[in-house]
Structure formats: structure tokens, C-alpha cells
Fold this sequence. Notes:
The protein is α/β, with parallel strands linked by helices and about 110 residues long. It is built from five helices and four strands. The chain has a single domain, classed as ATPase, V1 complex, subunit F (Rossmann fold). Helix content is about 40%, strand content about 20%. Strands 2-1-3-4 form a four-stranded parallel β-sheet.
Amino acid sequence: MYKVAVLGDRDSIYGFAALGLETVPVETPEEGARQLRHLAERDYAVIYITEALAKDLEEELSRFRESLLPAVIPIPGVHGNTGMGIAMVKKSVEQAVGSDIIFNEK
Length: 106
């Protein structure tokens, strides 16, 4: 059975434990990269990652863009929304469809 995890700073992810998701607090980008690989090697279908951590792990995240599982989804942290999540969705849609159908920017 597949599982769902949330990766990021403790303050941003702590509340997800109440929803039954596994929370994996990290303090450094290096620890975040190691934990992301660890989760991906197991039965985790969805890994939510705070935008702040995702920004530091862009190269690591690029490995997962082409694979079916796990889906790595950036979420805002306690420090606010950086816009990275929506930018990644936009990029994925552009790759799938061939044009920007969400924002229709030229």
C-alpha cells in the first residue's frame, strides 16, 4: 500500500501528523535531500515538500519529474507562499500540453 509523507521544517509540517500523514522534519538541505531519497525508495506515492526546502533541492527534485512515483508536490510553509508550487504546476502543464493554457501568458 502506498503512503504519503510531508518533508520540511518542523513548524511547517507538524500539523500534517493530525491528518495521519508521516511527517519528516529536516533542518538542512543536505538532510532534506537524504530524506527525500529515503522516502522515494520506499512505498511513498506522494511526498509533500515545503517550497523553501524545494527551492534548495531543485536539482534533486528534477530526478523525480519524469518518474511516475513518487509525486513530489511543493506546499507553502509557515513563512508564506513563494510561488514555486504554482510555477511547477505551470511547467508540468506546458510540458504535457505544449503551451501555457493555465495563465495564457505570452
